[in-house]
Automatic annotation (TrEMBL), chain A:
Belongs to the ABC transporter superfamily. It holds the Pfam family ABC_tran. This is ATP-binding cassette domain-containing protein. Keywords: ATP-binding, Nucleotide-binding, Transport.
UniProtKB/TrEMBL annotation, chain B:
It holds the Pfam family ABC2_membrane_4. This is ABC transporter permease. It comes from Oceanobacillus halophilus. The keyword Metal-binding does not apply. The keyword Plastid does not apply. The chain crosses the membrane at residues 18-38, 58-82, 103-132, 152-172, 179-196, 227-249. Keywords: Membrane, Transmembrane, Transmembrane helix.
Length: 307, 255
């Protein structure tokens, strides 16, 4: 069995002359929480719509649970749950009735799953209140309930925190984390709120103007965003020894190009420069680097640097 | 497919518009039948007159496309189109891993069932009940029941063809208002084609369409050939419309 839940191969979607997605290759492993980051209109929803079968690719292919034939894709979609754009609800039905519709649709035996799901998403006490009278947050939670009703292996959430209050956001994040840890649920979640995704996702795909600019793990992202002093000297090996002996630190990395990334002395760059020059080294470059998540993203997509 | 049929039935039972249409059809049907039965409203030249069932003349509007389209398209608009709108629940059905052809068929079948209830069953049952209640029960004899049975049996096939067309229209427009307006325009065009002089080709095509059959099947006497022709036109049209609907559903981008 494939270790990948979802793989896309040169996935392309074109509307007339505009590419909504262009040659997108994304791989999501079992058990991952994959955060799809992008600005509004970057192509996040288009990609999710293609994966869920709401829309058809112009080119490229999608592999879900190791299957890539269109008829097989429809079948394996039964193992997925999703909210795309807005939660799709029957406004004149209660939360219970909305879930009952979905239960019948999926052929889930017994009604106990409805009570369990209502409890899980915190809507057990909504009684006869119609979905049209729900707050935006309650609608999101009911949408999540619908997506979770059939106990899916793969959950796709498109901007799920839209309309949620701060507590609601925390609750949803904790719920997703819990389902991921306890049931091994694989999650693909899109958002333009970077800090939100950073607290939840284990892998990231950065999408911009229909193209995936970068795929990286949480560790890699943190590494890239970590503040450091970037030093380039004429002899990097000696430079490293000086840092160890004179500045008594081993919290640095020597990069393949000889640049040293020093994670200490962030507020005392002068000491670093002094130690290096005192040992006869020529400093070619010395700067303080590191990004906030927003700044890193902004740089990557070619926007304004955010300090 | 069974699951989808159960879902559609569940939704139909909870569809407010369906119950409003039932109430309106029941009220209107009762009123029309009452006015006809007490001779307040006399209709002439109807198919029921020719069959000697003038007490059931109020059924005529319910077999006329221009009139019954209002009922059928309203139901389609509020039962099918709304599901395709931007917050539409059709997304859930597609994401759930159901074949699109099955989704279309389930919607078509349950919508048609609802349309048959409001357009055929309610007016006929109310008509028969009022005729009996007002002392004209003698017309409900074997011969007339056979006529009504044959006529409505043959009527249902082209009617299903029409509900199929409206299902496709509702799916395309994704808006209840547009579904109703376009279907009214369509029925006006069909009415004009039926009533006004037309080129031979159009006349031939029209006479072999379900629209011509709506009135043809209510003729008091029909030859075997005419019955077979009517069945064939209804069945073939229905198949073509369903296949077109499935084809379009399979290629539809769900918003």
């Amino acid at each position: 069995m494939s270790e990948f839940i979802l793989r896309t191969n040169n996935l392309t979607k074109k509307y007339k002359n505009d590419f909504a997605l262009e040659n997108v290759n994304v791989s999501i492993k079992k058990g991952e929480i994959y955060g799809l980051i992008g600005q509004n209109g970057a192509g996040k929803s288009t990609m999710l719509r293609l994966v869920t079968g709401l829309s058809f690719p112009t080119d490229g292919s999608i592999e879900l649970f190791g299957n890539d034939h269109p008829s097989e894709l429809t079948e394996v979609q039964k193992r997925m749950g999703a909210i795309i754009e807005n939660p799709a609800l029957f406004p004149n039905m209660t939360a219970y009735e909305n879930l009952e519709v979905h239960r019948l649709q999926k052929g889930i035996p017994g009604r106990s799953c409805i009570q369990n799901t209502l409890e899980l998403v915190g809507l057990l006490d909504t009684g006869k209140k119609k979905a049209k009278n729900f707050s935006l947050g309650m609608k999101q939670r009911l949408g999540l309930g619908i997506a979770l009703l059939s106990d899916p292996e793969f959950l796709i959430l498109d901007e799920p925190t839209n309309g949620l209050d701060p507590m609601g956001i925390v609750e949803m994040r904790e719920l997703i984390k819990r389902l991921n840890h306890e049931k091994g649920l694989t999650v693909l979640i899109s958002s333009h709120i970077l800090s939100e995704l950073h607290q939840l996702a284990t892998s990231f795909g950065i999408i911009h103007k229909g193209k995936i600019l970068e795929e990286l793990t949480l560790k890699e992202l943190d590494e890239k965003c970590k503040m450091h002093v970037r030093v380039k000297v004429d002899q990097s090996a000696i430079g490293a020894t000086v840092l160890e002996d004179t500045l008594s630190t081993t919290d640095f990395e020597v990069m393949p190009d000889g640049t040293i990334k020093l994670y200490k002395y962030l507020n005392d760059v002068r000491s670093v420069s002094q130690a290096l020059t005192n040992n006869g080294l020529v400093i070619e470059h010395l700067s303080q680097n590191g990004d906030s998540l927003e700044s890193y993203f902004s740089k990557l997509v070619g926007g304004v640097d955010i300090d | 497919m069974t699951n989808l049929l159960r879902v559609e039935l569940y939704k139909l039972k909870r569809n407010k518009s369906f119950w409003v249409i039932i109430a309106m059809t029941t009220g209107l049907s009762t009123l029309l039948h009452y006015l006809v039965v007490i001779d307040w409203w006399t209709m002439s030249g109807t198919v029921f007159n020719e069959a000697g069932l003038s007490e059931l003349n109020a059924l005529s509007p319910f077999t006329t496309l221009l009139f019954f389209n209002l009922i059928v398209s309203s139901l389609a608009g509020f039962f099918i189109s709304v599901e395709f709108s931007s917050s539409g629940v059709i997304k859930n059905q597609v994401i759930s891993g159901n074949k699109r052809s099955h989704i279309f068929l389930a919607k078509f079948l349950v919508f048609s069932l609802g349309a048959i209830i409001v357009t055929i069953l309610i007016p006929v049952i109310i008509g028969i009940l009022l005729v009996i209640l007002f002392g004209h029960g003698d017309i409900i004899n074997t011969s007339n029941l056979l006529y009504l049975g044959r006529a409505y049996f043959l009527f249902i096939l082209p009617f299903l063809g029409y509900t199929g067309l409206i299902t496709v229209l509702a799916m395309i427009t994704e808006d209840s208002g547009k579904t109703i307006i376009f279907s009214i325009l369509f029925s006006i065009i069909m009415f004009a084609i039926e009533k006004f002089p037309k080129p031979l080709l159009i006349e031939t095509v029209f006479e072999h369409s379900i629209f011509y059959q709506f009135s043809e099947v209510f003729k008091h006497t029909m030859t075997n050939g005419e019955i077979i022709k009517s069945l064939l036109i209804g069945a073939i049209s229905l198949m073509i419309i369903i296949l077109c609907g499935i084809f379009m559903m399979n290629r539809k981008e769900i918003k």
